[in-house]
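Lecture notes, unit on protein representations.

Consider one protein chain, 191 amino acids long.
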Amino acid sequence: MTDTANDERPGFGDYEVTDEAVIPAPVDEVWAVLSDLATWLDWWTLIRVIPRDPDAPTVVHPGQRFRIEGSRPGATETRGWNVAVREVVANERIELEYTDGDLVGRTAWELEAVPDGTLAKYIYRGVHATVEQSAATFAKYGTRLHSTAMACDALAGLARAVAGEPLDDEWRADVQRRMAAGVSALDFMSG
């Protein structure tokens, strides 16, 4: 086991990144969508959620395990990591751990009532790459690529799902276009 707490490579060590958006709906309506893994495939287009036990309930619960797989637009390889649900507080948060695969570390979804609806947050806590290809992505983009994906896809998709807006092929194509533009912008900034 390698101690990464003091590792200065990008994507290693202690850090926290929060991506957030206000969803114009009450917390319980956002929770109803967010807490059911069966809905994630509909609104989080850049990833696939694969239950480790396909016969288990899809509502998140401590001890639940699933795999996330995905790739960014233009990428030729799919990356993947296994996830364990560590804690669930209804209408407040889902604590996750990327246990093994391309990425490891802690993450969480958090919800908070605000005057305009619900503040939805996805928090990356010290997530780091375990394979060369993912480490190269962290070295090039840091967590900015993840934040771009969260803004273009996950948070926007969650808001659309809660509002009952279409999550069809047109939406998925729009996510791909916005994500490609975001990656181009990151490439420009890092080049």
